Amino acid sequence: MEPLYEIDRRLRIALDEAYATAAENDGEIPEALADTIDMLEMAKDVKIGNVAMAYKNTLAEAGAVGAEAQNLTKRARSLKTRAEWLKGYLDASMDYEPYRDSKTAISWRRSKSVKITDSASFDTAPAKWYKTERSWLKPEIKADLEKGVKIDGFSIVENKNIQIK
To answer: Please, are residues 101 and 157 in contact by the beta-carbon 8 Å criterion?
Structure first.
């Protein structure tokens, strides 16, 4: 089927020809030309209906894809939560013992983080250690603690973080 713009072009040509013929023949339009105009108008109506249905179907499919994307996002979030639970389960169950087989390897790496005790106070801490809404900036605190600065209420603790590959 020809595109809508082509049907429009052919219809305009036929209508121009019909106006010119009607002017020459006291308003009479030849039957063949009238049939051509009718056929083009019907083809245009069919094409417009088809394009409108294609639009509606595409819009409905976009909505369905969006809904499926939301479902998949929820499922992915749920699976990530489960994976983190499984990781924690292994971490709590293995007593830091390495494990290796042909499919997996479990080990621990050492890391340092800041532990904030109840005696820590925003009032006595330098402003570079916390955000405006008064939450601690642990990287800044950790850097100062590692430089040897003694700070009441803060200490560096050693953690073991599970690695699954």
So the answer is: no
| DSSP line for 71-139 | HHHHHHHHHHHHHHHHHHHHHHHSTT--EE-SS-EEEEEEEEEEEE-TT--TTTS-GGGB-TTS-B-HH
Strands of the sheet containing 99-100, edge to edge, are 99-100, 105-116, 154-164
- Residues 141/153, Cβ–Cβ less than 8 Å: no
Digit-coded pLDDT (tens) for 47-57: 999 989 999 99
pLDDT digits (tens, 9 = 90+) for 83-122: 999 999 999 999 889 999 999 999 999 999 988 887 788 7
Task: Give the count of beta carbons closer than 10 Å to the beta carbon of residue 154.
Answer: 21
Cα–Cα dist 69/5, whole Å? 36
Q: Which amino acid is at 85?
A: W
Q: Where are the domains of the chain?
A: 4-90, 99-164
Q: How far apart are CA 66 and CA 77, in angstroms?
A: 16
Position of tokens 């713009």?
A: 5
